[in-house]
Specification:
The chain is of the alpha/beta class. The protein contains 13 helices and ten strands. Helix content is 42%, strand content 13%. It has a six-stranded parallel beta sheet with strand order 7-6-5-8-9-10, with helices on both faces. It has a four-stranded parallel beta sheet with strand order 1-2-3-4, sandwiched between helices.
């Protein structure tokens, strides 16, 4: 796609239809609300048993709503995006289940008339993401000195993730705080420029950490994990941080605030950099890390997510067979 080359259009509907006809699956899962789901609307209904969809991103409220609300009233915004939700309802019509990972998105989909919505939170790989002894080597490699507070954030460097808020928050934090951002994406150059304009060098952007064990080590070594995006449908990296026994700082909107370890989760006013900084200081205070470690086991395992989805499929297929 033009903005982010890591995303691609799924356009060969003929190949999709041929593949489904050949394999004759019991279940077709859609993991995009666009061309993948559109393809499902035109499949031969005799070539499969049920269709389902996974709601991974609320693009209308992430992109269209903020842009419009800066220019027109909330009422006009709702009127303008209503056709978008009508299109979503049409795309998802016929799905036996629409899965979402957070209560917030369950409420949003239900409000807009989407049927058969199931809230099934994601899990994390608990064999990798678990509390471990702080790896001093990790902190040393990142130039974190004794007595400094290391904050970590991770994800795709895209505009909707609102990394600008996290970087701006560093302006209001004292000298000992350092922010490590792990990720790649189209906004990298702009974010590096924003970070370099801060009065002191408090932000370092490193490449995406692909290996799970290395990413888990980074999360475990942090004094706190910070998250700036108020549009998340879940917030996987937030839950991975909690599973590593690291306190998390999240906006008070979106799915990222629904982590199970509430005693290690600190909310700030969404998109408010100054409030984010104040809450981050509380999250990284003495004794909080130990509390977070004690709560790490409350995070759901990814196997639990898979088993719940499969259980739902068994139920839906049994109903369809009647």
């Amino acid at each position: 796609m033009p903005y982010d080359a890591s995303y691609h259009w799924l356009l060969r509907m003929d190949k999709i239809r041929a593949l489904v006809t050949r394999e004759a699956p019991d279940v077709i899962e859609h993991h995009s609300p666009f061309f993948a789901t559109l393809a499902g609307r035109f499949l031969d209904p005799t070539s499969f048993r049920i269709r389902t969809a996974f709601w991974h991103g609320n693009h209308l409220d992430t992109f269209a709503r903020p842009w419009l609300e800066q220019r027109v009233s909330a009422r006009s915004t709702n009127f303008a995006i209503a056709p978008g939700w009508a299109a979503m309802r049409w795309l998802l019509r016929g799905c036996a289940a629409v899965f979402t990972a957070s209560r917030a998105e369950f409420a949003t989909l239900t409000l807009h008339g989407v049927n058969h919505v199931h809230c099934v939170p994601f899990g994390v790989d608990r064999s990798e993401f678990q509390p471990r002894a702080t790896d001093r080597e990790v902190r040393t490699q990142l130039n974190i000195h004794e007595g400094q507070r290391m904050l970590v954030a991770a994800g795709r460097l895209a505009a909707e993730k609102r990394w600008d808020v996290a970087i701006e928050a560093m302006r209001y934090l004292p000298e000992p705080y350092k922010l490590i951002i792990a990720g790649d994406g189209p906004e990298r150059t702009r974010l590096e420029a924003q970070a370099s304009a801060l009065p002191r060098k408090s932000v370092t952007i490193v490449p995406f950490v692909k290996a799970r064990n290395q990413f888990a080590a980074l999360l475990s070594a942090a004094d706190a994990y910070v998250h700036a995006c108020p549009y998340e449908t879940f917030g996987l990296t937030v839950n991975e941080a909690v599973a590593c026994g690291t306190p998390v700082v999240v906006p008070d909107r979106g799915g990222a605030q629904e982590s199970g370890a509430q005693g290690a989760l600190f909310r700030y006013r969404a998109l408010d950099a100054r409030d984010m900084a104040a809450v981050t200081m509380s999250a990284s205070a003495s004794g909080v890390k130990q509390r977070a470690i004690a709560l790490a086991a409350s995070v759901r395992d990814e196997k639990d997510h898979v088993l719940e989805v499969l259980s739902t499929y068994e139920h839906l297929l049994a109903e369809q067979a009647r």
